[in-house]
Amino acid sequence: MYSSTVFLRSTAPRFGRSLATVTHNPQILTPLRHDWTRQEITKIYDSPLLDLVFRASSIHRQNHDPSKIQLCTLMNIKTGGCSEDCSYCSQSSRYSTPTTASRLVDIEPVLEAARKAKENGSTRFCMGAAWRDLAGRKRGFERILQMVREVRGMGMEVCTTLGMLSPEQAKQLKEAGLTAYNHNLDTSREFYPQVITTRSYDERLETISAVRDAGISVCSGGILGLGESDQDRIGLIQEVANMPEHPESFPVNALVPIPGTPLEGNERVPHHTLLRTIATARVVLPGTIIRLAAGRNTLSESEQVMCFMAGANAVFTGEQMLTTPCSPWDEDKAMMGRWGLEGMQSFEQASVARKEGAALGPQTPRTVSEAQAELP
């Protein structure tokens, strides 16, 4: 047994809906680890795909209500003009793309968008600004803090992605009511320099540490289809799995090639690669929300449902993501209804509720990660 392995009995309640092939059993022992090796994750990733999906689905049902999907809506509050050279991004000022740079939006359009998202069933509202960092943006940051306060006041979870943060900026966001901060690692440490040169991998990890230390939930994942290998996908999962605390959410994006960017000619990532990555992440990150993010609109309904079966339990829904298309609310709700799925409530994820200081009721599901946190 690995020295840092902890085995805990799942305390999640029995759920009313389950597949005939997988019966929820709260007595099954589930491992939680932070010392995964590349070889171990490779063995999981390379296992026969149907076996891997079955294993991931079983672990998912031990730690989450399999009928629940978190619905998130993303708004671009400051478009384009970014000084970074992320080779996949149309918002970089270094590339000639269809994206037009704009200033930080006013507060009221953001609140209007958040109200619309809530009316349509979204429980997490995310705001993205195309900046490297917040240096020299004091007035803009103050406006964003007010956006966070107002959206949080609607009873929604609030997430932002604003580039690199200092510990003090992370603390201010927490005090304003921020639920989660997105800062993707994008890919493995080894492949990262092929994608971005203006921000180091360690700088990304420093921002994630500042967010975690401020008591904000970490949202950090990657992008598939950058030209990476299977080992790079495995390396990304290993990196987040061996953080001091598993991220609250792990977005899995499929590259949407945008004309004018260096990756405009990349081919669409195969569905089986997406599925294999999600399933592996679910096995290694049993308590984490896995978000099916950019590129989902290119998947058929059956392909999306296979991803849910493999452990994905969150999506972006609404009118648009940052610069790429998004599946509309009505289509998503209809799809979920056909497959017996429903949306999560705000702060239903116990790890999020704990960081918000909310009292957990007796019926609130806990993951093995959350149970471990309560051990002396």
From TrEMBL:
<dbReference type="GO" id="GO:0046872">
    <property type="term" value="F:metal ion binding"/>
</dbReference>
<dbReference type="GO" id="GO:0004076">
    <property type="term" value="F:biotin synthase activity"/>
</dbReference>
<dbReference type="Pfam" id="PF04055">
    <property type="entry name" value="Radical_SAM"/>
</dbReference>
<dbReference type="GO" id="GO:0051539">
    <property type="term" value="F:4 iron, 4 sulfur cluster binding"/>
</dbReference>
<keyword id="KW-0004">4Fe-4S</keyword>
<feature type="domain" description="Radical SAM core">
    <location>
        <begin position="64"/>
        <end position="296"/>
    </location>
</feature>
<feature type="binding site">
    <location>
        <position position="86"/>
    </location>
    <ligand>
        <name>[4Fe-4S] cluster</name>
    </ligand>
</feature>
<dbReference type="GO" id="GO:0005739">
    <property type="term" value="C:mitochondrion"/>
</dbReference>
<feature type="binding site">
    <location>
        <position position="291"/>
    </location>
    <ligand>
        <name>[2Fe-2S] cluster</name>
    </ligand>
</feature>
<keyword id="KW-0408">Iron</keyword>
<feature type="binding site">
    <location>
        <position position="126"/>
    </location>
    <ligand>
        <name>[2Fe-2S] cluster</name>
    </ligand>
</feature>
<dbReference type="Pfam" id="PF06968">
    <property type="entry name" value="BATS"/>
</dbReference>
<dbReference type="InterPro" id="IPR007197">
    <property type="entry name" value="rSAM"/>
</dbReference>
<comment type="pathway">
    <text>Cofactor biosynthesis; biotin biosynthesis; biotin from 7,8-diaminononanoate: step 2/2.</text>
</comment>
<protein>
    <recommendedName>
        <fullName>biotin synthase</fullName>
        <ecNumber>2.8.1.6</ecNumber>
    </recommendedName>
</protein>
<dbReference type="InterPro" id="IPR058240">
    <property type="entry name" value="rSAM_sf"/>
</dbReference>
<comment type="similarity">
    <text>Belongs to the radical SAM superfamily. Biotin synthase family.</text>
</comment>
<dbReference type="InterPro" id="IPR024177">
    <property type="entry name" value="Biotin_synthase"/>
</dbReference>
<keyword id="KW-0411">Iron-sulfur</keyword>
<dbReference type="InterPro" id="IPR006638">
    <property type="entry name" value="Elp3/MiaA/NifB-like_rSAM"/>
</dbReference>
<feature type="binding site">
    <location>
        <position position="159"/>
    </location>
    <ligand>
        <name>[2Fe-2S] cluster</name>
    </ligand>
</feature>
<feature type="binding site">
    <location>
        <position position="89"/>
    </location>
    <ligand>
        <name>[4Fe-4S] cluster</name>
    </ligand>
</feature>
<feature type="binding site">
    <location>
        <position position="219"/>
    </location>
    <ligand>
        <name>[2Fe-2S] cluster</name>
    </ligand>
</feature>
<feature type="region of interest" description="Disordered">
    <location>
        <begin position="352"/>
        <end position="376"/>
    </location>
</feature>
<dbReference type="GO" id="GO:0009102">
    <property type="term" value="P:biotin biosynthetic process"/>
</dbReference>
<feature type="binding site">
    <location>
        <position position="82"/>
    </location>
    <ligand>
        <name>[4Fe-4S] cluster</name>
    </ligand>
</feature>
<dbReference type="InterPro" id="IPR002684">
    <property type="entry name" value="Biotin_synth/BioAB"/>
</dbReference>
<keyword id="KW-0949">S-adenosyl-L-methionine</keyword>
<keyword id="KW-0093">Biotin biosynthesis</keyword>
<keyword id="KW-0479">Metal-binding</keyword>
<dbReference type="InterPro" id="IPR013785">
    <property type="entry name" value="Aldolase_TIM"/>
</dbReference>
<dbReference type="GO" id="GO:0051537">
    <property type="term" value="F:2 iron, 2 sulfur cluster binding"/>
</dbReference>
<keyword id="KW-0001">2Fe-2S</keyword>
<dbReference type="InterPro" id="IPR010722">
    <property type="entry name" value="BATS_dom"/>
</dbReference>
<keyword id="KW-0808">Transferase</keyword>
